[in-house]
Structure formats: structure tokens, C-alpha cells
Amino acid sequence: MRKNARSAALLLSCALVLVGCGTTTGDRAVSGGMLGAGAGAVIGAMTGNPATGAAIGAASGAFVGAVTDPCTLNLGNPIWRDHGGRAAYERRCGHPPPP
Predict the structure, then answer these.
(1) What is the pTM of this model?
(2) Which of 29, 37, 51, 76 reaches 20 to 30 Å from 21, CA-CA?
């Protein structure tokens, strides 16, 4: 059980970092919800209820994705969007993107 708890914590940490994908609030909420659902399903499967885990993960991921600022936590554009590269980032955030 201890190994499952460590695995779940690691997976959840990785998923929370990745919820920042996207530049608009909607993009970030969608990508966060999808990543959260996947991580929640895995964690739920380890504890015996993948559907509940996926639902909780999706809600948490969507919330965190929606409330984070793309200029503070920016992991790049999601695969379904292209927002003009470096120039668009500078217009949106007021400074060049990090190296």
C-alpha cells in the first residue's frame, strides 16, 4: 500500500504541473481537466474506484488550470492552438518568454 501511495503522489504532482498547458483560460481548464481525469483514474484504480478518481481529478485539474496565469506558469501552447509564437507571448505578458 505504501508503494501505491508514493506512486499516486508522484503522479498527482506531475499532473498538477502539467495543468498549465494553454494560453487562454478555456484552454487551461480543458487541458487541466483532461490531465486531472487521467491521473485521477489511475489513482482511483489503485484505491478501487477509478470513476470517482477520474471525476475528482477532472474537477481539480480544470479548476487549477483555469485559475493559473499563463504568464506565471506557461508550458507552451496546447496542440490544438497556435497563438503566434514569441511575439504573441510578448504582447500578452509584456516581456519575452523564458529561455
Answers:
(1) 0.56
(2) 51
pLDDT tens digit sequence for 80-95: 456 667 777 777 777 7
3-class secondary structure, 63? helix
The single-letter code of the amino acid at 53 is G
Long-range Cβ contact pairs of 1-7 (< 8 A, separation 24 or more): 4/46, 4/47, 7/46
Instruction: Delimit the domains of the chain by residue range.
Output: 2-71+81-93
Cα diameter, the chain: 49
Number of Cα atoms under 13 Å in the Cβ half of residue 85: 2
